[in-house]
Specification:
It holds the Pfam family MMPL. It comes from Acidiluteibacter ferrifornacis. This is MMPL family transporter. One of its GO terms (cellular component) is plasma membrane. By secondary structure, the chain is α+β, with helices and mostly antiparallel strands. The protein has a domain of about 425 residues: Multidrug efflux transporter AcrB transmembrane fold (Up-down Bundle). The protein is about 65% helix and about 5% strand. The protein contains 27 helices and nine strands. The strands form three sheets. Strands 2-5-1-6 form a four-stranded antiparallel β-sheet, with helices on both faces. Helix 2 crosses helix 9.
């Protein structure tokens, strides 16, 4: 197959180039339509009960997680001039398109009892800007006697205050978000400049907006760094600008195709799919290295350029296809997680790897065919002494010091097993942010003042129409609020009960001591006042009670405490909630972004381990088909599982938790590292046949020839993945550094442990099954290829 394929590529190179240009233009068109994702990543499948409860909540009460808070703790805010500027800021923000509501001290509403009309009249405490410090102090005294707002907009214990901005989801989840955020912060920065006060910001919209901006910037950074790193390494390896340029051209076309697939599938750029362009560059370059290296080797043998190019395609096409297949499988297994963000990543990454393989095996030989044959300077790298010294040293270790290899391996395994026991599984929404990042610092500031800013929702279905306002149920809701308040991670809960307490305080002339739930007697004479409520009050009520008054909600904010602590809280809370609302009479659901994140993290960790197992199984099946030997499959997996164990141990020793951003390491690294094993075993099999099944000679010759390419590609991959260390996200930094380390250990394992095992277990491994014909065969170095009918331009027609 590959013989015919090689002939077709070189004969029909003009048609192939034209076809690739058309495909690239089409992919470029789709790539131009790709947009950034502004929504929270969906980690749970749509069939998950937690996801369904959250969707049901949003359908009932609307989207949560759209409140951005700004605030400060500074007594200077309550100086007349500064407060009036805060008052103006509140009004100015309300006029910004995309901000639905602004809740702040200047906008606080009090209730006044109208005994004649038997209704409560909402009135703003600050009807206008205070004109004197005395007036401001007097009005602030009124505000501080409204317990409804204490713990939300201010703390009576200190000088903390906040302003809550409800953002329109239409703007929040689109590219218009940037315009909205920029206009909003222009006003906030103006306030800071005029007053000298520092305003803190937090909330899911703020965190997501900053993450989206950073992701957008990092895509460009990673692509530039990946290009610089790989281009520099290629120049050092081949000492040829053209070899470097054409390699970079091929992988950049691969990047265009990959982003084009995002557009075709209608996917958006998320924190994971943002990694694909630099990944394609880093993973695609080794293909080019293998092809160029083999091309130079072939040309140095016989000096026939076309014969060399033809034999390159024929001799290593199958091997490169299989190595790209195993790498692609490492990514494709993410599809089995059923998590939208990982499924998208798996689909696009695997298609991207397939694309860069097709481009490498077709375009690189074609481009080389238009150039002059490589000069002596270009093929001098084949005689690079330091590489051969390293390989020769490895051969000496394999021949004479295998016991040392096994001893070191055993020691690594023992130390690694202990390290693995220290690994923790966790996940925080802001976990990947640097501890000095303003977003992280502001989040911790608000957690210190109002416990947290991440939404936690409790829905209560009384299973009876009108059941919410039954006094016994109201008392249960109040009791549940008191229970939630016991947990230091939760903010003060807000529900319809708090509104009723506020109304009772207003009924008794604003006496703060009356801020309690009414009894049955009080209900009879306060009740008529609710029936006269205005439209604003009714609309506010709809946010907390459904139209039938059967289902209500309690909303609170929770600190970003991580999945472990959150799981412990939920485990402790659930039976206590059931003791208040018996499950046979009520349906109580805990939901909100914080709960969805908790369950999503648990789901990802569980399913990503499953995907790693699937990757190992699929690659093992491929290896068994290739080499017709179950024992050889076992032999090939050992040196590739060892690096994963080592990396897991390092995570345990250095406190790097297993979380959605780091669990990717294992599947990616395994899919890539097994490539070296395939190259080595394929060459080993060829040498066995060429040297009358002399196992020792075949193993050493395989090590000698494949060792150079392994070292070259491992250097590219090590520094290529290292570019992710430039990220501002801790998970991306860990991904880059740990994958680089894993691949480095995998290289050593494949160059030392694998040949050592083959030599030590020669009779056990090299069975008759292994001697059978396999799907992967390399042509003997002296075998000629019929080039009849292959018409190529003469050298005089070629351009430099």
């Amino acid at each position: 197959m590959w013989t015919k394929f090689a002939g077709h590529i070189l004969r029909k190179r003009y048609y192939i180039i034209a076809l690739l240009i058309v495909i690239t233009l089409i992919m470029g068109f789709f790539a131009s339509k790709v947009k950034m994702s502004y929504e929270m990543a969906q980690m749970l499948p749509e069939t998950d009960s937690t996801f369904q409860e959250f969707e049901s909540f949003k359908a009932q009460f609307g989207q949560e997680g759209s409140i951005l808070v700004i605030g400060m703790k500074d007594e200077r805010l309550f100086e007349l001039d500064n407060f009036n500027k805060w008052y103006d800021l509140s009004n100015d923000l309300r006029e910004v398109i995309g901000i639905d509501e602004v809740l702040s001290i200047p906008a606080i509403v009090d209730l006044t009892k109208d005994s004649k009309a038997k209704k409560f009249i909402p009135e703003r405490v600050f009807k206008s800007r205070p004109e004197s410090q005395e007036e401001l102090d007097s009005l602030m005294n009124v505000v501080r006697n409204l317990p409804f707002y204490n713990g939300y907009l201010f703390n009576n214990e200190d000088e903390f205050t906040l302003m809550a901005l409800t953002l329109d989801r239409k703007y929040l989840d689109s590219k218009d978000r940037k315009v909205l955020i920029d206009e909003m912060y222009s006003l906030i920065h103006q306030f800071e400049d005029e007053t000298g006060l520092t305003v803190r910001s937090s909330g899911l919209p703020y965190i997501r907006s900053n993450n989206t901006t950073k992701i957008s910037e990092e895509i460009k950074l990673f692509i530039v760094l990946a290009i610089l790193v790989t281009a520099t390494i290629l120049l050092l390896f081949f000492r040829s600008f053209k070899a470097m340029f054409f390699s970079m051209l091929i992988v950049m076309i691969g990047v265009v195709w990959s982003v084009g697939f995002l557009g075709i599938f209608g996917f958006q750029i998320s924190i994971l799919t943002a990694l694909i362009p630099p990944l394609i560059i880093v993973i695609g370059i080794p293909n080019c290295i293998f092809i160029i290296n083999k091309y130079h080797q072939e040309y140095s043998y016989h000096g026939n350029q076309m014969k060399a190019l033809n034999r390159v395609i024929y001799k290593i096409g199958n091997a490169i296809f299989l190595t790209n297949t195993t790498t692609g499988l490492g990514f494709a297994t993410f599809i089995f997680t059923q998590s939208a963000i990982l499924v998208e990543f798996g689909i696009i990454a695997s298609l991207g790897i397939l694309s860069v393989f097709i481009l490498s095996i077709t375009l690189m030989p074609i481009l080389q065919s238009f150039l002059k044959p490589p000069s002596q300077r270009h093929i001098k790298h084949l005689e690079r002494k330091w590489v051969f010294m390293v390989v020769n040293h490895l051969m000496t270790i394999v021949m004479k010091h295998r016991k040392v290899v096994y001893l070191v391996t055993a020691l690594i395994i023992v130390v690694s097993i202990y390290g693995v026991t220290k690994i923790k599984v966790t996940g925080n929404i802001a976990d990947d942010l640097p501890r000095h990042d303003p977003v992280f610092l502001d989040l911790k500031f608000f957690e210190g003042e109002v416990k947290g800013v991440l939404p936690l929702e409790v829905t209560i279905d009384t299973k009876k129409k009108g059941g919410v306002f039954k006094l016994s149920n109201l008392k249960k809701i109040d009791k549940l609020q008191d229970l939630l308040h016991e947990y230091p991670e939760f903010s003060k809960p807000l529900s319809v009960v708090e509104g009723l307490k506020f109304a009772k305080q207003a009924f008794y002339g604003g006496d703060p001591s009356k801020y309690t739930l009414f009894n049955s007697q009080e209900q009879s004479f306060i009740g008529p006042y609710f029936r006269g409520a205005d439209e604003t009050s009714k609309n506010l009520l709809k946010s907390y009670v459904d139209s039938t008054n059967q289902i209500t909600r309690i909303t609170a904010q929770v600190a970003d405490v991580g999945t472990n602590r959150m799981e412990a809280i939920m485990t402790d809370l659930k039976p206590r909630v059931d003791s208040i609302f018996p499950p046979d009479k009520y349906k109580v659901s805990l939901t909100g972004t914080s709960i969805v994140w908790l369950k999503g993290t648990e789901y990802l960790v569980k399913n990503l381990f499953i995907s790693l197992g699937i990757a190992i199984l699929l690659i093992a099946i491929i290896m068994s088909i290739l080499f017709s030997s179950v024992r050889m499959v076992f032999m090939s997996l050992v040196p590739n599982l060892l690096p994963l164990l080592t990396t897991a141990a390092i995570m345990g020793y250095f406190g790097i938790s297993i979380k959605p951003s780091t669990i990717l390491i294992f599947s990616i690294a395994f899919g890539i590292s097994v490539d070296d094993t395939i190259h080595f075993l394929a060459k080993y099999r060829q040498e066995l046949k060429a040297h009358s099944w002399n196992i020792k000679e075949a193993a050493l010759l395989a090590l000698k020839e494949t060792g150079v390419s392994m070292i070259y590609t491992s250097i590219v991959l090590f520094f290529g993945f290292g570019v992710f260390a430039a990220s501002e996200f801790g998970g991306t930094v860990a991904l880059g550094m740990l994958v680089s380390l894993t691949l480095l250990v995998a290289m050593c394992s494949n160059l030392l442990l694998l040949p050592s095992l083959i030599l030590s277990l020669d009779k056990w491994v090299t069975t008759k099954a292994f001697e059978k014909e396999s799907l992967i065969e390399l042509v003997d170095e002296e075998e000629d290829i019929d080039l009849e009918g292959l018409e190529i331009e003469s050298q005089s027609d070629k351009n430099e």
